[in-house]
Each structure stands twice: as structure tokens, then as C-alpha cells.
Design brief:
The structure is a single chain. This protein has two domains: 4-99, Serine-tRNA synthetase, tRNA binding domain (Helix Hairpins), CATH 1.10.287.40; 116-412, BirA Bifunctional Protein, domain 2. 40% of the residues lie in helices and 19% in strands. It has 13 helices and 14 strands. The chain has an eight-stranded mixed beta sheet. A three-stranded antiparallel beta sheet has the order 3-5-4. A three-stranded mixed beta sheet has the order 6-12-13, with no helix packed on it. Helix 3 packs antiparallel against helix 4. It binds one RNA strand of 93 nucleotides through residues 39, 42-43, 45-47, 49-50, 52-53, 55-61, 67, 70-78, 239, 241, 362, 364, 369, 371.
RNA sequence: GGAGAGGUGGCCGAGCGGACGAAGGCGCUCGCCUGCUAAGCGAGUAGGGGGUGUAAAACCUCCUCGAGGGUUCAAAUCCCUCCCUCUCCGCCA
């Protein structure tokens, strides 16, 4: 959620962001009028309330006719107050309906564009491997050993579910543990959070109302399955005020992630590249509002270090405005090279959501001159399934086996699979 | 799932219809005092919205005592619904 003061003092910044993001049809003038109106009506209601309290206060001290008169007067004011209050509430609701969906202000360095095709490549790392044998994709590589079983997964759960068995399962655990071991010394506290969350958590992080169609819901219990542990990690500190010394506060959350992938019908339908359920280690940081761009670089540096240690060639893209989520002010994606697809595909992303989430979640840092909203940032450490695919395809050998990246061997206990 | 207890400020804890945003204590901050880590004394110490503004300040006002509704001139206090925590029983990874 944006700061309402922007609408009052700098509406041009909002319109700039909207046009940057390619969103039109938002009537800021009407919103501003509605805002002024709701405040005026709220002020009238408050004046009545103040009078009511004053009159009410005299009732206890009066007797006889005077008391009766005060009670009668109080009743009149109470009626008027309730009516005015209802009017103010209604105006608030109308205002919020227009205000809440507005996305975060985008950073000036975000390229303007509509789809991921407009993302700006800013870096390449590593050498795209060349093979002197026919390249297999991850499913072909898994065929012999059967460590990825799509057919049986479909039997259990339908399409877009995967089953990792044997060494694939062990490799997942190795990846997770390896990532946590790298992050903990950098100040990230490992966390295993709930993945079933309340609506407030999704609203607070900006996934509601914008991406509601991507979220699995459990209507019988009013709970939702998270698409990323970012939701849980951000929400765990809702309504808190940190001492300045406590920030940046960093977590590395490990969780299963659930995504409906609605609208992705037909895309990446092969294997475990895009599935409804996957596992991920996610970095999350609550930091001082003056330091979030540095923190963004810091989180991104962790991502690069991890992918580099795995030795997977990648490129970095600065995600364009149209491909940016509502809560992000800026986002870098790392796209790994997938020999099976012969192109770069996203394996991590790192966003600075500035105060967009913290405003909804009411997370502040204590300062002498009033408390300030923290900035929140998130970044993928390891998206297990996609990383597994990237490893398999990049480390494949002529005989169809795969070499385990050196960094993981101490964790896997095996060198090939 | 069954039975009971309870949710108040950073923490503990009073209040159970009227001057209560809230006694008291602890903690913390500042000052004083005491010639030795300690003690004592004084002051301050929740968050948020709106308004006036000499706009850094100061002032006025409203909201918040788990959440939401209701009763009343008036609710932390009474009623209803929901959520959460704790204890005991049952079940269970």
C-alpha cells in the first residue's frame, strides 16, 4: 500500500509510476477528491463525538431536570454521530477500494516494458556449456534412474506435480542444507515457517488482492497456502516496532511453495520446471528505510554467490515495469542457462518492496523523531526444483549420468547420479 | 474433539458502567544525590488518524484495553459472535 500523503502532496509520482508500469484507467483526481471528502466528514464526526463525550461527562454530576436534559441532549448527539460515522466509514471504504490496489512506486532504474521479454540483461556469468553428445533435458536424464516420476505424481495429484525419489530427494536436502550453511554466517536466521496462512498475511505482503488467482485456498478453514515463504516471514513481525539496533533483521526461510499457475496452461508443461508445489529457501530482510538499496545489493550478492558456487552459467536481468509485482519497487532476476531448453530461465529473484508491505503489516523501526516504516526485501536463495533441473542439465555427461557440483558433494555423499 | 481458565501499555498486574489511554510495580531514559559495582530522590516513558501551525517545535481532537458487532447519554468494564493462549482429558506425527 502506498502512503496516502503521496496522493495529497505528490500525485505526479503516482501517475508517473502508473504510466511506467503501463497501467491506465486510474482516476487519481477522483481519488484525491474522495480522500478530501472522507477526511472532512471524519472531522465532522469527530467533532460530534467530542461534544458527546463532553455532555456525557456532565451527566454523572447533574441531578433532576438538568440531568434529564443532558441525557436527552446526549442522545441527540449520539444519533447524529452514528450517522456521520457511517458516512465516514462508507467514504473510507470507497477510497480504499481505489487506493489499495495501486502498486508500489517503481525505482527510476527499472526499465519500462510490458512482459519478461522487455527485461534488461545487465550481466552474464559463466560459460554456456557445449556438449559433444546429444543434449538431454532433465526428464530424459532422469528416465533411466527414475528419480523424477511425473506419471506417478499425476496419479496422486494430477498434472504439474513431481515426485522426487532416491538421489533427487537427497539432492534436494543437500541443496537446502548447503544454502542455509552459506547464509547463516551472513546473518540470516534459518526459519521453517507455517505455509498455511491467514488472509491478512497475503494482504499484508501484497499478494492480495493482486495475485489472488495464483493462491490455493482452504475455504473450510479460511486459510491459504503460500506461494513463497516471503508471506510468512514478512508477516511474522506484523505490528512490531524494532529498536534501530535490531535492523537489518535477516531470515532464511525454508518452505514448500504452492502456486496454482493459473494462466500458465501449456507453458513449461514438461517435468518439474513449473509445478504446483516446490520447495525453496528464501531470504527475507527487514531493514532501515535509509538502507534498503544497499540491502538489496547485499541480498542479490548472496544469490549470485550461491549460483556461482554451483557453477551454473547465468545472466542477470533488471525486471521491467510490466513484469514487476505490485509490491516491488525493483527486482533482479537470475536466469540460469538450461541446456535442455537452450535458453536462460529464471531461477531466483530479488526484490526491494520498500515500505509497501511494511505499511500494511505495520512494521516500524523506533527512532527519536517518530517511528518509521521499515523496508522489506526478499530474494530467492535456492528454488530447489529449478535448481535441480539446472544442475542436471548443465552437469550431464555423455552416458546420461550427472556429476554433482563440487559444493554439494560434502552434503550428498555421492558424486554422480 | 471434551472440560475449565484467561487475553489490559516494553514486561508483570489492578480496574469490572461515569473525569481511565488506564492505579501500582518492574524495566528503560534524563536529572539530582551519595566519595568505592549498589541504594535513594525527582521527572519522563504506547501506537495510529485528522486538524491548526512561527510546519524542527507547540497545541487541539479522534481511535485503539485480542477482533468484530450490540446495549447505553456514557463501555477496559454489560451482552453476542469470532480468534488466540494456558491447564486437564481424549486422539495423534
Amino acid at each position: 500500500m502506498l502512503d496516502v500523503n503521496l496522493l495529497r502532496d505528490h500525485p505526479e509520482l503516482i501517475s508517473a509510476t502508473l504510466s511506467h508500469r503501463g497501467i491506465d484507467g486510474v482516476d487519481l483526481d477522483t481519488l484525491a477528491e474522495l480522500d478530501a471528502q472522507r477526511r472532512a466528514v471524519r472531522a465532522e464526526a469527530e467533532a460530534l463525538r467530542s461534544e458527546q463525550k463532553e455532555v456525557g461527562g456532565t451527566v454523572a454530576r447533574l441531578d433532576g431536570d438538568e440531568k434529564d436534559a443532558a441525557i436527552a441532549r446526549g442522545a441527540e448527539i449520539a444519533t447524529a454521530y452514528k450517522a456521520k460515522l457511517a458516512e465516514a466509514d462508507e467514504l473510507d471504504a470507497r477510497f480504499e477500494a481505489g487506493w489499495i490496489p495501486l502498486p508500489n512506486l517503481v525505482h527510476a532504474s527499472v526499465p519500462k516494458g510490458e512482459t519478461e521479454d522487455d527485461n534488461e540483461e545487465i550481466k552474464q556469468w559463466g560459460d554456456v556449456p557445449s556438449f559433444d553428445f546429444p543434449v538431454r533435458d532433465h526428464l530424459e536424464l532422469a528416465a533411466e534412474s527414475g528419480i523424477i516420476d511425473m506419471e506417478r505424481a499425476a496419479k496422486i495429484s494430477g498434472s504439474r506435480f513431481g515426485l522426487l525419489t532416491g538421489k533427487a530427494a537427497l539432492l534436494e536436502l543437500s541443496l537446502v542444507r548447503w544454502a542455509l550453511d552459506r547464509l547463516e554466517p551472513q546473518g540470516f536466521t534459518p526459519v521453517i515457517p507455517p505455509v498455511l496462512v491467514k488472509e491478512e498475511a497475503l494482504f499484508g505482503t501484497g499478494f492480495f488482492p493482486d495475485d489472488a488467482e495464483q493462491v490455493y485456498s482452504i475455504p473450510s478453514d479460511d486459510l491459504f497456502l503460500v506461494g513463497t515463504s516471503e508471506v510468512s516471514l514478512a508477516s511474522m513481525h506484523a505490528d512490531e516496532i524494532f529498536p534501530v539496533a535490531d535492523v537489518p533483521l535477516r531470515y532464511a526461510g525454508f518452505s514448500t511453495c504452492f502456486r496454482r499457475e493459473s494462466g500458465a496452461a501449456g507453458r513449461d508443461s514438461r517435468g518439474i520446471f513449473r509445478v504446483h508445489q516446490f520447495d525453496k529457501v528464501e531470504m527475507f530482510s527487514f531493514c532501515h528505510p535509509d538502507g534498503s538499496w544497499e540491502e538489496h545489493d547485499f541480498l542479490f550478492a548472496q544469490e549470485e554467490a550461491l549460483v556461482q558456487e554451483l557453477g551454473i552459467p547465468y545472466r542477470v536481468v533488471n525486471v521491467c515495469s510490466g513484469d514487476l509485482g505490485a509490491s516491488a519497487a525493483k527486482k533482479y532476476d537470475i536466469e540460469a542457462w538450461f541446456p535442455g531448453q537452450e535458453r536462460y530461465r529464471e531461477i531466483t529473484s530479488c526484490s526491494n518492496t520498500t515500505d509497501y508491505q511494511s505499511r500494511r503489516l505495520k512494521i516500524r523501526v523506533k527512532e527519536d523523531k517518530g517511528n518509521r516504516l521499515v523496508h522489506t526485501l526478499n530474494g530467492t536463495a535456492v528454488a530447489v526444483q529449478r535448481t535441480l533441473v539446472a544442475i542436471m542439465e548443465n552437469y550431464q555427461r555423455a552416458d546420461g549420468t550427472v556429476r554433482v557440483p563440487d559444493a554439494l558433494i560434502p552434503y550428498t555423499g555421492f558424486e554422480t547420479f
